[in-house]
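User: Continuing from earlier, I have the next pair ready.

Assistant: Great, send them over.

User: Here they are, in order.

Assistant: Folding the first of the pair now:
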Amino acid sequence: MPTKNAEFAASRVGIAPTVAWTTRTTDPESSCHIEIPSWSNAQDLSSAPRPSKQITFIKERTQQRTTPRSKASKPSVHGPPAPKAPVVKPSVPKTQVPKTQVPKTQVPKTQVPKTQVPKTQVPNLKASNTKAPRPKAPSQGPPQPNTTIPKAQPPKTIPPQDWTVIPDSKQPSALTALILHRHARPVLTANEYKFGTTLPIPYKRTPKRAAICIDCEMVGVAPNDTSALARMSVIDYLTNEILIDTLVQPTEPVTDWRTKYSGITRQAMATAMSQGKALRGSAEARAELFKYVDSDTILVGHALQHDLLALGIRHDRIVDSAILAAEAVGKGVKRRWGLKDLASQLLDIKIQSSDKVGHDSVEDAFAAGEVVLQCIEQPNKLRMWGERKRKEYYGGKSKKTSVKKGVSSRGFRPSVSRPG
């Protein structure tokens, strides 16, 4: 189709536009074939009548089949384009569905009233001298048993008014002084001690006691009324703890209970065995003793050679109160002072009194440890006591101590200078 520029050029030259029927269009709604005129300069058809309905139909069909163009590029068939009638779209009124608002049901919150516990005002007893009344226990009903679990009680100790308690700060120095007063092997051999030790070897993971006081009571057994172990008491030298205090049933038949000295009767031994509170034989006694001692432990006692013989052990780290007293008196004096005399004269403590039946091995162990402690801490008092006993032994006349040549009173050989 001719554009506006072509129409304008033709009108300026003076050539009337001609129409050539070249385009053929088929109407899909009818079986008619319509020839669309093509504008050219061949002939002037301006005077020919044009059916308006036919031209309007052709324009509508042409615009539907061709590619849509912009408003500026659309050609006009007869001069300037006619204004398009505004297409009035029938406005369908929208039916607005009213929204049904569901009212929210508000659940009322139930407020739980807080129960205010009344505060109990404790009366000030300091301000008022009146004492608070104690609630009385109900008298009706049987008494309920006490369900509290008893606590483990520490080992029993003798009250400190009789025996010295070494403070924790002074225990290392007391142990060092005790080690320095051990008896030499020649002295132990001269006092019927066996050579060597049969105590267990020290083990670092299970440390034992550094020093103990031990005392044993014996009874006579067959044959020949031989002494056998019947009671053993062991305490800690530094802490005064009672480690062992038990009866020991001899494996041999008992011929003499020696109740006057041992304080043990047949009935007491039978009761202890039936209750499981007694050991059987020296083997079980040794096993119980080895729980607390090893070869480094110092044994303290009075005349311990008899106790060790009854236990069936040997040891060479010994501090014997009987040997300390004999060395204080000096050589040549054949008398030996018992533990009862040493406790009375050195400590002013009475043990083994007549109102008791036999000896108490726990009391004797404490007394032996106390005598050794006083001899170590107060050497001047021990020396004066030894001089006094020596004068009494010789009838008021002092006699020089005769020492065996080559061996001192403590068993050490003096150093002799050799000629060069």
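And the other member of the pair:
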Amino acid sequence: MANLSKKHDRALQELQAQQREVRASVGKEHRELASALQAELEDEYKALKAQHAKEMAALLKVQSVADQLEADNKVSNNLLYEMLPKYVADDLKMGRKSEPRDFDCVTILYSDIVQFTNLTSQSTSSQIVNLLNRLYTAFDTILDDYSDVYKTETIGDAYQIVGGLDGQSGANVPAPITSGSDGGSDAGSDAGTSSHSARLAAREVVECAIRFMDAVFNLDMSDQVKKELQIRIGVHSGPAVGGVAGSLMPKFALFGDTVNIAGQMEQKSQPTRIHVSETTYNLVKGGDYEFQPAGEVTLEGGLKMRSFWLMGWSKTNGAKAAGESSGRNSSAQRLSSAKAKRKVKLAQ
């Protein structure tokens, strides 16, 4: 019995020793597997983190390129809208053909430099280029203040702008008084009524004319042969047809009697003066500007039309611009009080 008990105790001890060895071996194997799995997971995490970093860098690069493209597109759109009427620019952007369009009433301004041929004969090419660059840059800067006034032509010293291309809403033009008409200067407004858009376009172009003349008075002429520059301006309002000519370098152009009459108003103007047709006068008269009668002018074909000299801002314009907030895009409201009150002397 005692021997049996000893054998049982010895077998139990051996079994316990074997179990301890097995547990130690299994524990060691488990730790090794856990360590290997942890290392594998860490490597995978590092790889995923590196991949995520690359993808984020690529995404940021794509976003940066997209932002740059959007900024460039915005600049291109702004430049396009400055060069072409909005409806034409939108057609071209969408790949559509821009069809010719009839305009009930636009206001066209022509300006040119007095004795420009004589000036070019006395100046170097660099002087002429610098002069025109300064002059046209000053004019372009003024146009930036108006949403519906566009530069449509610059040929040599000739500068043409038009207002009313985007704001058309069925404008009827006051009929100008010709030599066969009866009544005073107000009869033109009785012949028809003009819409708000036509009046606004005419006012903006007239304000551009005043500011153009003011810009010329203050133009830097330090590097020029002559120390002062003189321009003459003509303005007329009426119906016209506009459209894009060409596809390689699309150019917007206006056609019709209104264009020709505006050019004749400029040709029959005088140095440092703004010559306005009666049609335009009827659209803008009412207190903001000072006019003087210029008499009748004979147009091509023998037609006679009364015209006016635009002398500048009226005496009450400064107070009116400071006291009212009509919401329209008017330079009179953006000028300082001192400048708005000061009448620009366009004729001596």
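Worth noting for the second one:
Residues 2-83 form the longest helix (82 residues). Residues 1-83 form one domain.
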